[in-house]
Amino acid sequence: MVSLIPLDPALHTDALQQVYALTPAYWEMYHLPGAPAGQAGRDLAAVQEEAGRTALGILLPNQPGDPSAGAQLIGLLDFRMHWPEQGTVYVGMVLVAEPFQRQGAASAAWALLEEWLADSADISLVRLTVEQFNTGALRFFQRVGFSLTGESRRTKSGQRLVRLLVMEKELGK
Questions:
Q1: Which CATH number, 3.90.180.10, 2.60.40.1270, 3.40.630.30, 3.50.50.60, labels domain 3-124?
Q2: Which end of the chain has less Cβ packing within 10 Å, N or C?
């Protein structure tokens, strides 16, 4: 169904910006009218500047079963390897454009990434934070096996404080 590719700023900035444009509910959670202009470029540049950080695009074939028909970028997996310690990956974002949500794309993409992390990347623990108000993300991560750790922290988002809930999942070898 889906495949993953490393995102290259020279090739994928416009396509990622389009994914952002197709996720207005995400930006509304932060009281923004939509994706800020140039956000994809800033995000992909930031990925390149941080050691161990990777941005993978979630691709959906234009016509399943026909590789010559190409694929479209429908989402993003952003993570940092061996951070904050060896054997741990920290997930910064799993995002799927709204027209493709609730169709299994994020779960399929996560399954591909998780298998690679466990089998090939020497990762035993995945950690992430979810905004307390992002109930869709909380349900998604619980559905794919993450648990709340009981840890939380607050961070400033614009003029308000946001509580981030820490979740983790141990990967089997």
A1: 3.40.630.30
A2: C
pLDDT for 12-66, tens place per residue? 999 999 999 999 999 998 888 999 999 999 999 999 999 999 999 999 988 776 6
List alpha helices for the chain, DSSP H: 9-21, 24-28, 39-49, 105-120, 135-143
Q: What is the DSSP letter of 83?
A: -
Show the tokens assigned to 119.
Answer: 């089998």
d(Cα 144, Cα 94) in Å, to the nearest integer?
A: 12
Six-digit token string for 153:
């922290």
List pLDDT tens digits, range 111-147. 999 999 999 888 999 999 999 989 999 999 999 999 9
Letter string b/e over residues 78-111, b meaning 16 or more CB atoms within 10 A of that residue's CB: bbbbeeeeeebbbbbebbbbeebbeeebbbbbbe
pTM, 2 dp: 0.91
